[in-house]
Amino acid sequence: MAITLSQTDADFELRFSAFLTTKREVSADVEAVVRDIVARVRAEGDKALIDYT
User: Fold this and answer.
1) Which pTM was predicted?
2) What DSSP string describes 4-27?
3) Rg of the Cα atoms in the chain
4) How many helices (H) and strands (E) does the chain have?
5) Could you tell me if residue 27 is left (phi over 0), alpha (psi between -120 and 50 degrees) or otherwise beta?
């Protein structure tokens, strides 16, 4: 979810600190994506790497 912060807001520091400490991804989701990428690169080699760049 996108948020808008403005340095001139009275609660800027509080909201910015909260933003920095908020976890924004689930490690299980990241692990699954990475596992799929590694499997594809192992299977397809350079073609898969080129597709990801």
Assistant:
1) 0.49
2) ---TTSTTHHHHHHHHHHS--S-H
3) 19
4) 3, 0
5) alpha
